[in-house]
Amino acid sequence: MGLDLREGDLDGFFRVPFEIYAADSPYVTPMRADLKRYLDPARNPLMRDDGGRLTFFTAWRDGRPVGRLTAHTHPSSNARHSLRRCQFGYFDCEDDVATARLLFEAAEAFARDQGCDELVGAFNLTAMQQAGVLTEGFDNQTYTDMVWGAPHLPRLLDACGYAPMFPMSTFEFDVGPDTADALLGERQRAVLAAPDWTWMPITRSAFKARFEEARQCLNDGFSDNPMFVPLTPAEFDFQAGEMMWIVDPRIACVAHYRGEPAGVVICIPDLNPFQKATRGRMGPLTLFHFIRERLRRRRAVIIFYSVKRDLHGQGLNGAMLHRVVKALFAGGYRQCGVTWIADENTASLRQMEKLNARRLQRLNLFRKGL
User: Which residues form the N-acetyltransferase domain (predicted)?
Assistant: First the structure.
């Protein structure tokens, strides 16, 4: 039967990693229901509200899905950064150059049809998206919102004409009785002691208000970061809204300064063991797996932290992290992951040094001019 390409085949797209990666690999699938939402232009705000275009491809060999790839445009990003960029994502593929070329040739044709002059990825596939292709750390177990791909993927990208750019790392640190104190200096202690600062837990009853404040802090604090585009309420809610059912209010907070939102740390229990156990599908044992992992969870992950720009330099970042790490230890968590930090983000990298964090993964974006 040979090799052929299908477009818009959700079932095959979902199956690819299960066909090509070993069951004991660190790969963790998104829930199939979430993947279906992400790939639906009528539901995903990046396409529905922003005018972006989206397609996805699956490569089949002898009746088996053995490769997959998305391609989409993000008009607000291109307008903000003066680009004509198309983005690819969810690149998983058997170790075969012909399969990879079949996928990327289709994505490149789509990009040219949209008037784009480059294809860059991986971006997986919301405004708060996972980013990057794994280049080091293939044996390490990932946390929620981290990507994993096989060691041959960077080589396939190179064979298809893609060059690495924008290096990033993810991190992991041990949560011990004294871990949080390493973050404290004079400025951080002053923030923690001053009555102008208050700490608002993200409880389920206050979830909507706290997450709108979190969006405001993220948009302001990240405004000058490369590639960042401010998130609309719909974009933020599309992915973050589901956190209401998994948030642990002890380990996430919004900081207020004189009654106004000033900074945020979003830290959640690591869901990867649950998703690994369910293989990404809802079924009769889903609730059992959820309760079991909830009772024995020892790992959490910091999804992001941000401070509004006019409050930079006052020690708030370290003070927030100090409170969260103390709460992690009190809550029984013993390891914490941190999602990707760009090599150029020296301030966040200094926080990782203070926490004695170890690098878990190295990642890059990959780019090809068209």
Answer: 245-355
Q: What is the CATH number of domain 3-169?
A: 3.40.630.30
| DSSP states of 235-250 | HHHHHHGGGGGT--TT
Compute the half-sphere exposure of residue 145: CA atoms within 13 Å on the CB side of its CA: 26
Same fold, 3-169 and 173-361: yes
Fold of the 173-361 domain? Aminopeptidase (3.40.630)
Phi-psi region of 115 (alpha: psi -120 to 50; beta: other; left: phi over 0): left
Give residue limits of the domains in the chain: 3-169, 173-361
Task: Give yes or no for a contact between 37 and 43, defined as CB atoms under 8 angstroms apart.
Answer: yes
Q: What is the token pair recorded at 12?
A: 């095959």
If DSSP codes are grouped into helix, strand and coil, which group holds residue 361?
A: strand
Contact 66, 99 (CB under 8 A): yes
pTM, rounded to two decimals? 0.94
CB atoms within 10 A of CB 205: 8
